[in-house]
Design a protein that fits this description.
By secondary structure, the chain is of the alpha/beta class. It is built from twelve helices and twelve strands. Helix 5 links the parallel strand 3 and strand 4. Helix 2 crosses helix 3. It is elongated and about 75 Å long.
Length: about 300
């Protein structure tokens, strides 16, 4: 508590301005402060955090590694303080909240394309920032408070204070250019493995669910292309003998060229749960609870349509 006494709200506001834009003159203008006053605040902040925070880079300034790590946490703290001051009843039509979400382009195609029209209609001043991270980084940034929500497949053990909601179950299908599949409706395992494959992974060394299933039976795919994005993967298949095995909704929500055909992979790949996770300390955040409710309603409606 003694350390907290050294850091008042005005210093936090100065810190947020400097972390958002490491330029003393512009940050001072945003705060309606003089540049010398902001420089004085920066000197105090450097003492409090025992770090330079802003480093000289050429003719300008850049964030230190510690300042970069603090950036979203400081913003979240100020948003939480603002929420305490404001009326606790969340009014989406008036809210100017900024949400930071993590998802792959698969998640964006499934979630964001449905969510944004609702946001624009009922909460037009809300802002959304989307980042793409590995599963490990998603979990870490949710724990650190740098993310409001993360979307993906979270099979690993998680701390008790991380909340998880399963949005839907998904299955895998294989896709290839129909000229190379010929008249066959599918492929046997040996033939399927003999073809070159595409792996979609944020990290090039990451094995996905398919490779783990194959490893259990002592087999492996012949990976010829690794991509970080789902959205372009199907189009890359055109005119090649490559096989892409992906989550089914990737094909349903994307642009699917007529030259491509889908078939069931010749091995038993378990369905997987697509979930969203958030930190338990955000359960009292009415804005986030509103967003969670909207997403769950959208996904439930989508599930009912799929069942029809």
């Amino acid at each position: 508590m003694n350390e907290l006494r050294r850091l008042d709200l005005n210093l936090l506001l100065s810190l947020d301005a400097l972390l958002s834009d490491p330029h003393l003159t512009r940050a001072a203008e945003r705060l309606n402060k003089s540049q010398p006053a902001l420089s004085h605040d920066l000197a105090k902040l450097r003492i409090v955090f025992n770090d330079q925070l802003l480093l000289r880079e050429g003719r300008g300034l850049c964030l230190s590694p510690k300042a970069t790590q603090m950036k979203m946490a400081v913003k979240n703290i100020l948003e939480n303080i603002q929420q305490l001051i404001l009326d606790q009843e969340f009014k989406p039509e008036a809210s100017q909240r900024r949400f930071r979400l993590a998802m792959s382009d698969y998640g964006s195609s499934v979630i964001l394309t449905k969510l944004l029209p609702i946001i624009r209609q009922y909460a037009p001043h809300i802002k959304i920032e989307v980042v793409q991270l590995s599963r490990r980084m998603m979990m870490e940034q949710v724990i650190e408070g740098q993310l409001d929500l993360a979307f993906g497949v979270f099979n690993q053990a998680r701390p008790k204070y991380i909340q998880q909601k399963i949005l839907f179950k998904e299955r895998f299908i294989s896709v290839m250019d129909r000229q190379f599949l010929g008249e066959a409706a599918t492929l046997d395992l040996d033939t399927w493995l003999n073809y070159p494959h595409i792996l979609v992974a944020v990290q090039t060394f990451a094995a996905d669910e398919i490779d783990r299933v194959l490893a259990e039976i002592g087999r492996q795919r012949n990976i010829h292309l690794i991509l970080p994005h789902w959205s372009v993967a199907a189009e890359v298949l055109l005119g090649t003998d490559l096989i892409l095995t992906v989550a089914e909704k990737t094909i349903q929500t994307g642009r699917f060229p007529k030259q491509l055909t889908c078939f069931t992979p010749p091995l038993s790949i378990p369905q997987f749960d697509f979930s969203m996770i958030w930190h338990r300390n955000k359960d009292s955040d009415p804005a986030l609870q509103w967003l969670l409710g909207v997403i769950q309603t959208l996904m439930q409606s989508e599930s009912r349509m799929d069942d029809c």
